[in-house]
Amino acid sequence: MPAGTTKKKNNHLVSIIMSIVAVVVLIIALWLYLQYRSDRRYVDVVPVSQVADSYWGDQASSSGIVVSDYIQELYPSFDKIISEVFVKEGDEVRIGDPLLQYDKTQLELEVELKEVAVKQADLNLTTAQNQLKKLQNTKPTTTPGPTAKPSNQPSSRPPSQGPAGTATPTPVPPSDVTAYSRLDLNSVPYAGSGTTEDPYVFLCTPDCVMTTEFLHWLLGTYQSDGSDGNNPDYDGDYDGDGNWDEPTPEPTARPGSHLVSPFAALFEVRDGNSNYGQLISAFKLDGTQLSANFQPEDAIPGYGSLDSIEHMFGASPSPSPNNYNHMGYTAAELKQLIADKKEEIQRLQTAKKQAQLDLRVADSKLKNSTVLSTVDGTVRTLIDLETATAENRPFLVVSGDSTYYVSGALSEGVLGVVQVGDPITVTDYWNGGTYTAEIVSIADYPLEEDSNLYYYGTGNPNSSSYEFTAVVDGGEGLQNGQYVDISLDLQNNSIANALYVQNAYIREDAAGSYVMIADRNNRLMKQYVQTGRSLYGYSMEIKSGLTIDDFIAFPYGTDVEEGVRVRLQGTEDEPPFGSDASLPTLDVSVPAGNAVDDIAEGEVMVE
Q1: Per-residue model confidence as pLDDT tens digits over 469-498
Q2: Taking Cα atoms as reference points, which of 513, 579, 500, 495 lies closest to residue 547?
Q3: Are 188 and 181 in contact (CB under 8 A)?
Q4: pTM > 0.90
Q5: pLDDT tier at 404, thresholds 50, 70, 90
Q6: In the structure, what pLDDT confidence band is assigned to residue 321 with cuts at 50, 70 and 90?
Q7: Which residues contact 303 (CB under 8 A, 6 or more apart)?
Q8: Is 57 exposed, middle or buried (0-12, 13-18, 19+ CB in 10 A)?
Q9: Distance (Å, rounded) from C-alpha 323 to C-alpha 319?
Q10: Cα separation of 414 and 492, whole Å?
């Protein structure tokens, strides 16, 4: 080949290489410039105190109906047991006199169960919201992978079954050791010798619980004389308040467990409940390292979920990823999973509200376990419960004297604010009269939708309403059956001391309500908050997630996104938290909670 031709080809090749290099350099320079421009963006923030509102009391109102000769009727209750009746037929009673006493034991148990239900509902919602965040942080893959979707179970990984029509993943090899859902003295570790250096290793299911005996054995506090309240030979009587009266334990043999006592153990949760599956989470509990002054009786109430035990003893969990990248979801699968999770969150939000309502009703029943007279009058009827039930009529009736009463409505949101004994103002626009009345009763259950009583005032206008009855002081000029207006002054210290932020600074997505605030690196971050009551229609109570010491941004605008620099409003570039770095930084956030939180951040389950 002629030398000239070779030289031309070489020159041409060099030109191509130089062009490619120039394009690459240009792209890199452009990318760096855009990064620089992006990092030069600022979003203004202000102290939360500047956008917070103060509570100065509410004025609420209701429609009302006047009645005379008010009658108080008590019907048999299937969920409450009467322990004592204080009146007899023909007795004269005044408002506030006790009529009867319901047994508190059952009512207290109901409150405890409702409290557990509220905590479980809150846990389920929090878990689902965390799973949604993980799904949104997950990067799709082009290689079909596991098609499981996160469920409402408190687990840090999705279960194994996925949407129909998707590729089947390579299954996790079946376990050749036992995956325990209940750890007791017969449980066998699949590895380890029980020492601090070589702890026992137990494979657990996500909903695994451990018995009291197992935990005592681990801690070295097991007592074989039956003093452990969970011992089957313990024959003392339980009083419902966490105490046993006059036990008469019988000696029991030392357990035949092959586990040393005390011992150290590692509790693992793995993919597919298999010892060959990927490690989801784990925590270690070392009974050999506890203080000799440790008193287990105050810390071990019964069967406990793994996370409640971990939280109780401060064990150190393994970290949990803030995504599901290891599941290998495709873009289409992720899209569907995110949509399903958003629907699930909506259902769980409704379930939480219902659980809170049930707790409020149970609390009200317990608070009103001593039934007081709401009437100045006479006990007209007092019959036995069997007869009243058979004839479907009240067993106790108090007939009022010539006194005027008024019935109105309260919003669910102010039930804890308005109490029996509170004064109200009654206005009759027909005769121009204004009267003072005192609330004598508040219903336990919401009004029917077709009720002619209405509430107007603070709180969610779509929430349930509850009927209340008040006795009017005087009442000259009032007539039986006429409508009146009722005014209530709502004053409450807990409400007054709460944090309220203007609605414009609060946004919502499928995971819940959030605000945009400055983090400690002077970067913008999305912070989810728990909201409460509405204040005057333009502010919202913040129960958690935000404090008065934070700095908040107006959450709208093209530059409002996580990671953008923040500065104090009205300054050139002054950061809210000291000097900012001059170069871009990568903020790697550890997910809230821990690995065990995603397994089951539940309350201790008593069996």
Answers
A1: 898 887 777 777 788 888 887 765 556 678
A2: 500
A3: no
A4: no
A5: confident
A6: low
A7: 209, 210, 211, 212, 604, 605, 606, 607
A8: exposed
A9: 12
A10: 10
